[in-house]
Structure formats: C-alpha cells, structure tokens
Amino acid sequence: MNDFVRVASVSPKVSVADPFYNVEEMLKWAKEAEKQSVSLLVYPELAVSGYTAHDLLLQESLQKACAEAVGIFAEKTADSPVLFVFGYPFVLRGKLYNTAFAMQKGKILGIVPKKHLPNHSEFYEERYFQEGREEVEWIPDFLGKEEEWTPFGMHLHFTAENEARFRLAVEICEDLWVPNPPSVTHCLMGATVIANTTASDALIRKNDSRRALVQHSSGCLHNAYIYTSAGPSESTQDMVFSAHSMIAENGKILSESPRFYEGMIYSDIDLSVLWQERIKQNTFETTEDSAIQVSFPLYKADYEAQGVSAPFSSEKRKKKISLKRFIHPMPFLPPLSGKDYERGEEILSIQVQGLKKRLNHIGAKKVILGLSGGLDSTLALFVCVECFRLMGYDLDHILTITMPSFGTSKLTRNNALECARLLGTELREISIEDAVLQHFKDISYDETMRDVVYENAQARERTQILMDLANKEGALLVGTGDLSESALGFSTYNADHMSMYNVNCDVPKTVIPLVLRSFVKEREDAVEDSMDREKVGALKKIVEEIIQVPVSPELLPPDEKGEIKQKTEEILGPYVLHDFFLYMHLRYGFSAKKLFFLACHAFSDENMQYYKREEKKTFSPKEILQCLKVFYRRFFSQQFKRSCMPDGPKIGRIALSPRGDLRQASDASSRVWLLELEEIEHSL
Predict the structure, then answer these.
(1) Which residue range is the domain that position 205 belongs to?
(2) For the segment 126-151, what is each residue's pLDDT rounded down to a tens digit?
(3) 173 assigned to active site
C-alpha cells in the first residue's frame, strides 16, 4: 500500500553558536529517521546555528563555521534517501537571510527564505535578516560543486518524481501567523505537504494557538503540515522555546510532541486523502502554477496490512513496514467518549428541527410511528417527544403503534410498551398475524416456506397499517430506518423503506446508542422530584436493554426459548465494519484495496491500544474481507431503494439522499471493486 509517506519532526538538542555540535545532533536523528523508514525529516528554524545566536549571526566566523558544518552534514548523509529540511542563516550578496535548506543524498535541492520577519515583542529578526523574495533565482551551488546551481526563493516546490501527489513547500515560523500565509499560495499552486521550520517560544496557552493554526492550515488547504520548533536547549536568557512538534493531515493532528520534548515524532500521512479531498471540493480553486519545480526521488517504504502475512504489494523485495498512525475504527463517533453527550445532543437537535419544520409546513399536530422496541424506532420516538415538547404539543398526539407478528420477541415487545408508557405517548397494539395469514391464503403462499415472501409480507402489512392510520388521524408517518440499513438496502422495498418523513435517514447504526443515552442523560440532569427520577431511571434501564439486544427485523419466529433467532449481523456482518466501510468509501472514495488495508489496521490489536473508547472490537483480515464483499455487493445492488427514499435531515458528512449527496445509478456495476477484493483473497 503506497498511498502513505512517513514524515517526521525533530527538535534536537542545540548548543548556541556551535554548528558542529548542532550538526552532530542532527546526524543522530538523521540516522534514526532512516532506521524508521522516514521519507521527510524536518528540523527547527536556524537549526545549524541555533535560533538564539542573535548578533553572533552577523559574525563572519560563525557564518563560515555554519557553512562548514552543513558540508559535514551533506557528506555524512550522501547515501541517505531521506529528504531533510532544516533552518540555516544564509548569506547571499552581502545580505543575511533566515532560510530553510532542502537536502537529499548530500545535495542541496533548494533554499527557501523566510518572508515575514517578526519585529515585535520578544522578536527582532529585522535586526539581522532580509525579507525573502517570492521569485526564484538560480545561484551557484552552496557546497561549491562546479557546474551545479541551486534555486533560491519562496516559490519553490520539491516534487517527488515517483509520486505526483507529494509536492513539498516550506514556510518558516512567522509565515504561518500572518493573515495570508505563504502556505495558502503554495497549496493553491499544487503543494500537498508543508514543512514549517520554526522557533516558537513557550507562553501560557500558546500551545493551543499553534495547534489551532496548524489544524486550520491543514484542514482548509487539504495538506499535510509538519511543524517543528526549537526547544529548551536554545538560550533561556529571556525566553524558553517550546520544542512543539506537530504532524497534521487534513485538519487532524496525527502526532504531537509533549511539551519541551527534544526528540523525534513521526507519522504516516495519507496522500490519497489530500488528493481526494481536493478533487471532491470544487471550491478549492487552484491558481497559476508559477512555482519552480525541483524533482527528487521520494523514498517510500511499502506498508503491509495488519495480520496479512502474504505480500500486499507486488514489490516483493521492498522493505515492508506497518502503519504508524491511529485509524479511528468508528469514524462516525467522537474519538473520545467524553464528547458523546455533546455529539448526541447535536444530532438529536438537528433531527428535531427537521421534523418541526415539516410539521409546521403541512399543519399537522400528530405523528405516528411503528414502535418495535429496537434501536431505530426508539430513536425516532425520542425525536418525536423532543419535537413535541419544543412545539408545545401534547405528547399523547404521538401515536406509537406496536404490531406484533410471528417473529416478535417478548423482550422487544415489552420494551416498546414500557418506553411509550414512560414517555406519555398514545400506544396502540395491533397484531398483524391474522391479516398476514389471510394475505398468504389470497396469494396461495405456503407459510412454511419462511422465505423472502414470508418476511416481506409482514413488513408491508405494517406499513399499510401505519399509512392508513396516518390518513385517518391526519398524522405524519415518521420513518425509522437508519443510514446503515439504507446503505446496505436492509429493508423491504415500499414497506419499512417508506414513510412520510424519516428523521433517522442520516444516523448510522453505530451512533444510535450514543443519541439514545444523550436523550436519557438530558432528562437525568433536568429531574426535579423523586417521581420523575424514578421514571427516568426506568427509562434508562430500558434504553440500555434496547442497546444490548441483537439487531433484528424479527420477521422469523423466535427459537424454542422465545429468544431472537434472526440476527441481522449474522446475515450481513458487523455494523461496526459496515459503518467503517461506508464512511471511508463515500468520504474519501478509497479503492477497495485501500479500504481493506485501512480496516485491517483499524481493527487490529495494535491500533486498538490507542482507542480511548470502551467498545473495542478486533477482526481478522478474512472476516474483514468477507464483510467488505457484502458491503460492495449490497451498496451497489440496493441503490434502487435509495433512489426513492423519503425526505429526511442530513446529519453528518455522509448522506445517501439522491437529491443531495449521492448521485449513483441503480444499475451501476460493483465488478471493479469486487475484482480488487479477489486479488486480495488470492494473497491471503
């Protein structure tokens, strides 16, 4: 898997105005970077001299020593495939510039000067340095190699000759803090990776400001951003430097150093994420590419999928490494469970506002929904209750209909009844068994067959009852089907697939428990007397039972113990996998091979060590592959159901409405994706 590139940021120990010591430290980390299969290593601002050399930078002796030290660094890294970026005080035509050198295999590929020189508060860079120019000029080789020239200027891009998606640009410290950073121009001209060599001091809350800037740059510009600051071994005469290192990708911090850490951090950036985001976002407008391109061979190790012993790539001789970054196995959920309540509250509020507008528009003051005692219908009920409270409507105008049949279990039926009672909605129970049996007689169907006719007839009978009751009561039929079911087409066409407004249409199965718990917690926080406290406690208990019950359409009879026999995840595979596939497939447009690779890593023991939530599930590559096949087959074949799905509110980035986010032909083929999986299967 070659979409990834390992990048690193290091803040080495520094001896102020001793470039020979500093280069020795830089070389230590250069060796470590090569050992860790790093492709790009970024050092701090003025790493060779030390940022706090101040007036000594104007001394000829130090200038010569810096040049000599860089020569040593070039000689010692002549065989290294790593691309190095480091800060250097560069003299050109009698002027001193604060620059960053880009070097690989002992050759200086280019020199980038700093544009914005801070001359305020504790910084006085205009005392020493000249402002860098955007235009690039070619100057004699810094290392004195005859007939070689080096580009000097801001508009320099270092482009990998073997990877078109890797295009590096450099900005230096203050350049990031100005209203129009150079990185904006660089990215609009095509740069995908930004290296920032910096010397940023440690001040109260400044870590937060730096992090916000880096996240914003990488997010709005769809780039990978490597930020490297000088550390506390710089002079502490008047300030302490932070050694703050960060690696960000598309708005997310992949790796970040502890405070004052004089060492190296690294992570694997995903070039396909950056590429796909720019392709999808038509408002990311590129400008005329006036940057000078310097090509170089990018070192790229090959990444192997977790748990897959056979080669994942055809390049069998290439070094194989494991991914060194966290992949969120449940991307629809917040990374930290501490944000669950806030996320659940936000989701519920969007659902409520969607329903509120629809009710106001049609002038309805009643809603009706089928209540099964499962996750989806419980969430829809909570949305209706919250909406009616907001609108000041009586809760008994929420008509909850439970329609037991051959597959209804005692547990889910009781949970549905108790939920409606505790919330104060009107509850009606209508058994559909006789109606379905009569229907079987009408169409001459043998009920012992227990096939798709047996199952779908029940679903359609329920929808007919709900639609007719909605007409009779002047009510809006609220749909309950969720995003995950819609993606897989796990619903009966023109039955539970249909409603008058579906409040759950954009809520994934793995997110519903979070929203249910958020609803209950809000009521816990608002409890004022013991009677209410008892009701909320009972509701909380039922909600937890509903969450623990296996997901099932309950269309086949229970087993001899009366327990649910038909379990959705035994038919389709785990929803946690399907939701992962759905997110990655639509959010980034990854290939089938890439999706498999990411899933193997996300659900591996190694990745789960860094997962901060309680729900930790691991799956083998074979389990993932089997489930991924199901996903592609169903996602393509079931598009016809989504082509006529009811209205409903978009909640997150992933949505399936044919009127909005997903324009896909109902008769499109999944063959290309399944062929990729066949290749993987042969290597397992």
Answers:
(1) 4-300
(2) 999 999 999 999 999 999 887 789 99
(3) yes
